[in-house]
Design a protein that fits this description.
By secondary structure, this protein is of the alpha/beta class. The chain is 33% helix and 17% strand. The chain has a 7-stranded mixed beta sheet with strand order 4-3-2-1-5-6-7.
C-alpha cells in the first residue's frame, strides 16, 4: 500500500453517528474482489435517487467538495458487517483520512491495512471541524502521522493516538503481504530445508 507520512487536503463533513458499512458500500456491489472501481458507488443509496439520478441534497454531490480527501464523520463510524470493501471504496473515491470520535474495530483495522488513516478525536473537536468544513468548503486540514497531529494551516489543533506497530506499517507502506515478504529469505530457507529433509519420501 502507499506510504502515509503527512496528508494535507480539504474536508467534507458527513457528521452523523453509526454510519455502517452497508451505507458506505451497499451489499449489491460486493460481487467483485478487485480493490478498484468502488469509488463511484461510495454512499450509493445516499448519493443517488431511486431512478439513478444524483441526489443534489447529499454533500458528496456538491461540486465544492469534489476534491475532498478527508472525511469528517460521527461516532462509531464503520459499524456493521466486516466488509473490507468499505475502506476500498473510500480510498478509491480519493479519501486518505477519516476523522471521527470513534470507529468500529474491524473497520479501523481494515482501514489501516489499506492505506486509509482513521483518526479519533474528541466529540467536541470533531463536531467543531465538521461545522467549520461545512461553513468553508476550502478549509484545509493537515494530518501528520509522524508527529500524530492534526492542524489547520500552521496551527496544531489536536494530537491523536495510534498503536506504534500500526503507525510503523502506515509510515512504511506495509500491508500484511509486505510484512510477510520482509521475511522472504527466511521463508525460502525454511522451505528448502523442509524439501531436503523430506526428499527421501519421493524415492
Amino acid at each position: 500500500m502507499d506510504r502515509f507520512t503527512k496528508h494535507t487536503g480539504s474536508a467534507v463533513p458527513i457528521y452523523q453517528p453509526n454510519i455502517d458499512t452497508d451505507q458506505i458500500i451497499p451489499k449489491q456491489f460486493l460481487k467483485r474482489i478487485e480493490r478498484t472501481g468502488y469509488g463511484e458507488v461510495l454512499f450509493y443509496d445516499w448519493r443517488f435517487n431511486s431512478d439513478g439520478t444524483p441526489n443534489t441534497d447529499f454533500i458528496l454531490n456538491d461540486a465544492q467538495y469534489a476534491d475532498a480527501s478527508i472525511l469528517i464523520a460521527g461516532a462509531n463510524f464503520g459499524c456493521g458487517s466486516s466488509r473490507e470493501h468499505a475502506p476500498w471504496s473510500l480510498t478509491d473515491h480519493g479519501f486518505r483520512v477519516v476523522i471521527a470520535p470513534s470507529f468500529a474495530d474491524i473497520f479501523y483495522n481494515n482501514s489501516l491495512k489499506n492505506g486509509l488513516l482513521p483518526v479519533s478525536l474528541s466529540e467536541e473537536l470533531t463536531a467543531a471541524l465538521a461545522a467549520r468544513s461545512l461553513a468553508d468548503p476550502d478549509l484545509t486540514i493537515s494530518v501528520d502521522l509522524e508527529n500524530k497531529t492534526v492542524s489547520d494551516g500552521e496551527r496544531t489543533i489536536a494530537s491523536f493516538e495510534i498503536e506504534d506497530f500500526r503507525r510503523h506499517c502506515m509510515l512504511n507502506g506495509l500491508d500484511d503481504i509486505a510484512l510477510t515478504l520482509q521475511q522472504e529469505s527466511r521463508i525460502t530457507a525454511y522451505e528448502e530445508k523442509i524439501a531436503a529433509a523430506s526428499s527421501f519420501l519421493l524415492l
